Amino acid sequence: MRRRRSFFFPAALLAATIGAGAARLQAQQHDSPPLVAALPFANSVVGDERAALDPLVSGVPELLLIELSRHPGVHVVEPARVRRVLTSQKLDRQARIDDEAASHVGRILGAQWVIRGTFTSDGHGAIRLAASMVNVGTGQVEHGASVEGKQANVAALIVQLAEHVAHDMRLAELPKESRRARELARKGSSAATLTFARAIEARDAGRVQEAIAALKQLLSDNPEYEPAQNELARLHSDTGR
User: Fold this and answer.
1) Of 220, 227, 162, which is closest to residue 188 (Cα–Cα)?
2) Distances from the Cα of 144 to the Cαs of 54, 79, 84, 131, 159, in angstroms?
3) Are 75 and 141 in the same domain?
């Protein structure tokens, strides 16, 4: 009997230690600033508009991350890292990536959250954006959001979607300066949004000079368009110009 007691006590102690360690790790993950990744959005448009709106596959998640990154303490995964992982895992950017695959990608990236989404239109000037937030730790969708309205207001719809996501993830409120930047983003034109999305599409395809030309044209028409300013500066830095 003595031997049996001496055998079970260390096992119980080990189990308690493991449990306490797991609890500490979970608390650390909960308290640490979230790292968020966004996958290409699926183009669910049917008909003649499909090709015209296809740049939003890359453009919507890019702009969504820009808006989320305005919140204090939020870190986002660079889209280039996401592209490399998708390529290495043989995942098509145009395919619908399910929750399991999204969680797998998130683990490789070290992210706590992965956003995946889709967009569609009614063929009469309206568009709908939907996003699902996959908790990488559980592999489950914990939140979902959608917005819809006129394609002419697509910039405002992306901002609205970002606000829903930020609310569901309980992100910190925007500082005053970030609120001003968001209001400017909300007022962006659909033409500017699509031109920016085309530049991002070209960048993702490796056509960097085409992306730079599109961004320069965009800024000549909209000098205060912040996403284009930042992306152009980054591309010039990467190309050594």
Assistant:
1) 227
2) 22, 21, 26, 6, 15
3) yes
Cα 182-114-238 angle, rounded to 5 deg: 65
**Total domains present in the chain:** 2
Half-sphere exposure of 50 (CA within 13 A, CB side): 8
Closest by CA position to 120, among listed 146, 97, 100:
146
Say yes or no: 138 and 233 in one domain.
Answer: no
pLDDT in tens, 157-212: 999 999 999 999 889 999 999 999 999 999 999 999 999 999 999 999 999 999 99
The whole domain housing 41 covers: 33-184
193 and 75 inside one domain: no
Q: Which amino acid is at 186?
A: R
> What token pair was written down for 195?
């031109």
Which among 142, 159, 184 is the end of a domain?
184
Instruction: Determine if the pTM surpasses 0.85.
Output: no
C-beta atoms surrounding 106 within 10 Å: 26
Helical axes 226-238 vs 56-68, angle rounded to 10°:
100
Side-chain-side CA neighbours of 55 within 13 Å: the count stands at 19
